[in-house]
Design a protein that fits this description.
Elements: E1 2-10, H1 15-31, E2 35-40, E3 49-56, H2 59-69, H3 73-85, E4 88-96
Antiparallel strand pairs: 1-3, 1-4, 2-3
Pfam families: NIPSNAP
InterPro entries: Dimeric_a/b-barrel, NIPSNAP
Protein name: NIPSNAP family protein
Length: about 100
């Protein structure tokens, strides 16, 4: 299992546009077989930082999603929406391996 963790620098005057963009991608990631864990938008503190994460079964599954997303009309429309509105200034992507089960000490 692999989790993609995203840190966005967003335009604080375009938070509503960024939220719309995020809602589009929640649906799209899940359509391609991933599990989206949602977006975290500014509430207090820095107003230009947001986060998101989603998980795929493997890095290969993630790569397949990425490849297919570039050919998908709905994904292209979401990319275009972000470009048109300027809601995203930049983003960083990291890949993490989740640990979700505890053990007795």
């Amino acid at each position: 299992m692999i989790t993609c963790f995203l840190r966005y620098e967003i335009d604080p005057d375009r938070i509503d546009d960024f939220e719309h963009y995020g809602r589009l991608w929640i649906t799209l990631v899940e359509r391609f077989g991933g599990k989206h864990h949602g977006y975290l938008l500014p509430a207090e503190g820095e107003s230009d930082i947001a986060y998101a994460s989603f998980t795929f079964d493997s890095l290969a599954s993630y790569e397949d999603y990425r490849t297919r997303s570039f050919d998908d009309a709905d994904c292209r429309a979401a990319f275009d929406f972000a470009r048109r509105t300027g809601c995203i200034r930049r983003y960083e992507r990291s890949f993490l391996r989740p640990v979700t089960e505890g053990i007795e000490p």
